[in-house]
Amino acid sequence: AEKKSRSFFDDDGKKKKKEEDKVVANDVDLGESRNLVISGANAGGKTVFMKSVGLAALLRRMGVPVPATRRPRISFFDVILADVGDGQALGQSTYVAHLRFVKHALEGASRARRALVLLDEVGSGTDPAQGAAVGRATLEKLVDSGAVVVATTHHGAIKEALAAADDRFVTAAMGYEGGAPTFRVEYGVVGESRALDAAEREGLPRGLLERARDLVGADELATEQLRADLREAQNEARRAKAELDFALLETEEKQIEYDRLAKEAADAALSAEAEAAAEYEAKLRTVVDDLRAKAAALSANKEEEEASAAMDAAVAEATEGRRDAEARHKGFEPLADLTSLSVGRRVVVLKDASPYYGELATISRLSSVTATAKIDSAPYAKPVKLKAKELAVPDEKNLDDDARRPPKRRRQASALSDNVRKVLGKGAEKLSRGAANALLAETGGDPKALKAFRDNARRPRQREEHLDIRIRTPDNTLDLRGARLEAAEDAVDRFLVDASMAGMRSAYVLHGHGKGILKQGIRSYVKRHPKVKKSQPAPMEDGGDAFTLVELR
Fold it and tell me: Quick count: other Cβ atoms within 10 Å of Cβ 53?
């Protein structure tokens, strides 16, 4: 009893893990052949594997779940017949017992609609050659009767010749590696019995084993070794295939995971963009609403200022179409060419939308197509380039006669009549000289006409779009990129005058960065422009230093 306990327990009383306790799982796959012949080493697991097939079929008949890792597919058999073990009895040899079972199995298989027959060590117990012949004939007869057969054998005439000659049978072998069985079934191969290895494992005397090898013969041993080498090569190929299949599966899983993460990232990016756009739209809407509210609040406080500005705008609109006609009426005809001019000659500026329209200027430079003139009333302003049609030559004898000059912008002086001051009040002081003269010309100084003009000018106008909402748009931006400085200055002059006439409070000039020549020149020019209150680089949200933000007077 003490010796037996030591075989199951170690010195600490813990149960040992015996080799027999390990469970080895196997797949049963009969394929289209439906009949299986199993071979392999003695004590290699052939009979246990065959019994497992029979037990699975019985569990199927009883409706009991089969212990399998995957969902199994098992046919329903009317009859399950098994010849396992030694049926020897008094008056009956082992071989005879096998024969009597074969007779019983043939009768049962012929009567059943579907039968499963299990034969262990078929053809054993008698002369090997004759026993193998009877065993092969038995297997063929059972299959002819419609039965499904699973048999184990050591006979080469059955395990090697039968499957090669009859495609209704498939062979399988129990694995054997490193001098010991693995108990794993391998389909499509024939297993060696390895009787000498089994005898050695069981501890038979060495001399006996050497004698047995001598009796087997070198050729038989060499053949068996070749089979063993072939089996090892097949096992190595299977292991390599299994590793490759695992690597492919792992790669597919990683690709699936990568695709999932990439989709999640793309969805997150789209969601973030949509949220950012909605947030920006909400902020912009809030800014516009706030500015409109401020504009409504300021409109009451700036009624007088807006009325004065409206009067200037109305006068400008009333006189816009008459300036050229009036200039011609006073004897100032635009020149057809520049041939009559020379440096130092005094001229009158007739350039449309110029802040110096009607001003006297002195020619400082001439070319074939343009004349550069310095404005007499603005000695510090940059000279302007003018074409022939933008110039007129005054009568030198009457240069000081105001009646011979075209309308000009001068500060308001004594030209305002008493009626203008009386009707317009403080608003009259804010009129320019040209606006006052034009107003007198329009109304003739009549108090009723002046009052009607005042009431019309003070009427509320739609000016929200021209309030100081510093949001850069195409309408309030002048793009000068790629222009030369001289041409750019003319464009800025026209742009600022038009913006002021339209009632804008601020505007943007896009000059870019480049080498800085255009940017510095434009910024220097707008600081001197009579329509500009102040200028500065645009804030970052409106383009930054590539733009100049201009506040208009």
Answer: 21
Strands 346-349 and 547-552: unpaired
At 62, list the tokens: 């009883």
| Among the listed residues 344, 322, 338, 343, the one whose alpha carbon sits nearest the alpha carbon of residue 391 | 338
DSSP bridge pairs for 177: 180
For 124-217, where are the alpha helices, taking DSSP H only?
A: 128-144, 156-159, 161-165, 195-201, 206-216
Distance of CA 451 to the CA centre of its chain: 69
- Tens-digit pLDDT profile for residues 11-29: 555 555 555 567 888 888 8
For residue 553, pLDDT beyond 90:
no
Distance separating alpha carbons of residues 369 and 382, to the nearest angstrom: 19
Q: Check if the beta carbon of residue 528 is closer than 8 Å to that of residue 380.
A: yes
Residue 404's pLDDT is 42
Q: Which residues contact 92 (CB under 8 A, 6 or more apart)?
A: 100
Q: Which residue from 161, 194, 188, 187 is spatially nearest to 49, judged by alpha carbons?
A: 187
Q: Residues in the chain, how many?
A: 553
d(CA 552, CA 209): 117
pLDDT tens across 490-530, in order?
Answer: 899 989 988 888 888 899 999 888 888 899 999 999 999 99
- Name the pairing type of β-strands 169-177 and 180-187: antiparallel
Q: Which candidate, 125, 123, 131, places its Cα nearest to that of 93?
A: 125
pTM for the model stands at: 0.40
- 46: nearest Cα among 121, 155, 123, 105: 121
Instruction: Measure CA 9 to chain center.
Output: 62
**What is the C-alpha separation between 120 and 85, in angstroms, rounded?**
7
What the block records as the tokens of 372 is 């550069």
What is the Cα–Cα distance from 272 to 265, expressed in whole angstroms? 10
Please tell me the distance from the alpha carbon of residue 504 to that of residue 476, in angstroms, as a whole number.
8
**Cβ atoms < 10 Å from Cβ of 362:** 14
pLDDT at 10 over 70: no
Comparing CA positions, the residue from 48, 52, 51, 43 lying closest to residue 180 is 43
Do 360 and 348 touch, CB atoms closer than 8 A? Answer: yes
Helix intervals (H) in 302-322: 303-320
Rounded-to-integer distance, Cα 76 and Cα 78, Å: 7
Do the strands 391-392 and 115-119 form a parallel or antiparallel pair, or are they unpaired? unpaired
Distance CA 173, CA 152 (A): 10
Give the phi and the psi of residue 424 in degrees, each rounded to 5.
-85, -20
Sequence-distant (6+) residues with CB within 8 A of 168 are: 33, 34, 35, 143
Phi, psi of 171 (to 5 degrees): -100, 155
Q: What is the percent of the chain where pLDDT is above 90? A: 22
Query: pLDDT tens digits, residue range 394-447?
Result: 876 545 544 344 444 333 333 455 666 666 665 555 554 445 555 555 555 666
Partner residues linked to 384 by β-bridges = 373
CA distance 320 to 60: 106
CA distances from 115 to 35, 54, 126, 157 (A): 12, 11, 27, 25
Q: What is the CA radius of gyration of the chain?
A: 57
